[in-house]
Amino acid sequence: MRNKEFFPLVRLCELYDLEVTFFEELGDFGLIDLKVYQGQQCIHQDALQEVERIIRIHRDLHVNLEGIDVVLNMLRRQEELEARLLRLSNKLRRYEDPFQ
């Protein structure tokens, strides 16, 4: 594991003006995966986009942890449905008459 793969929670707290406990609660609730790297609590860089999404939901909509979990599940489900709709539309397009 390389250092550049992990982002320290302390730095996230500085960037977003949040307490470490907020991220620890997210980890306890299973919304993010916290790792300890070189003695610091960190998140993997691949999770940064999801963390930013969680912070926006929390701040902009004033949603608690349980609500964030519900919103994220609904967004994932919506993305799955949109992908499925796209696949079905592409399959249907194969059978459409190109001369109409």
Automatic annotation (TrEMBL):
Record protein name field: MerR family transcriptional regulator
* Species name: Muriicola jejuensis
Lineage, opening ranks: Bacteria, Pseudomonadati, Bacteroidota, Flavobacteriia, Flavobacteriales
